[in-house]
Amino acid sequence: MFIPHPNLSDEVNANIVQAEIEGGVSLGDLPPSTVLEIQTQHHRYTAVFLGESQALISGHPEYCPEPVLVAIAGSTWGGSMLKLRYIGRGMHLEFCHPEYRTPIVTSRIQEVRERIHLGFESSSSTNDSLNSAPPVSRESTPAPSMLARGTFSKPS
Fold first, then answer.
1. Which residue blocks in the chain are alpha helix, DSSP H?
2. Is 57 buried (19+), middle (13-18) or exposed (0-12) by CB count in 10 A?
3. How far apart are CA 64 and CA 120, in angstroms?
4. Which of 28, 63, 73, 87 is deepest in the core (most CB within 10 A)?
5. Contacts for 135 with CB less than 8 Å, ≥ 6 apart
6. Which of 26, 36, 59 is nearest to 115 (CA)?
7. 46-82 per-position pLDDT tens digit
8. pTM exceeds 0.85, yes or no
9. For residues 57 and 71, is the Cβ–Cβ distance under 8 A?
10. Dihedrals φ, ψ of 67, to 5°?
11. 3-state SS of the chain: helix, strand, coil percent to 5?
């Protein structure tokens, strides 16, 4: 159970509780190559997590129409307080783009899903038509919402 921190405002404590209720994903819990679909109020982003805070992100017609390497800072409630390396529903994703001096902040995140790849790719090292099969296409379907609980540390 969350105990409000006495040194934080009621608004900040309420945001922390809301983040726990809404859910999201901590980047520290993801293996590299995880593909996330992030639906905001205005755009659907695809982020291929590469490790640490780096990702290839696409989905915005101006900032990232094609995949671009960015550093995901985390999510914010719209102010200056940032939940580091976390992508949370109801929050705004903040990432550093190599071509812009200031961070990019998205509209409110509505959903975060991990894309699951189904199917198998087959390959053959022989030209024998009996032993070779055409490659099976890889389809992707979204998995259920990722509701990993975020962690906040209390200030000392």
1. 10-22
2. buried
3. 30
4. 87
5. 121, 122, 123
6. 36
7. 999 999 999 999 999 999 999 999 999 999 998 888 9
8. no
9. no
10. -55, 135
11. 10, 40, 50
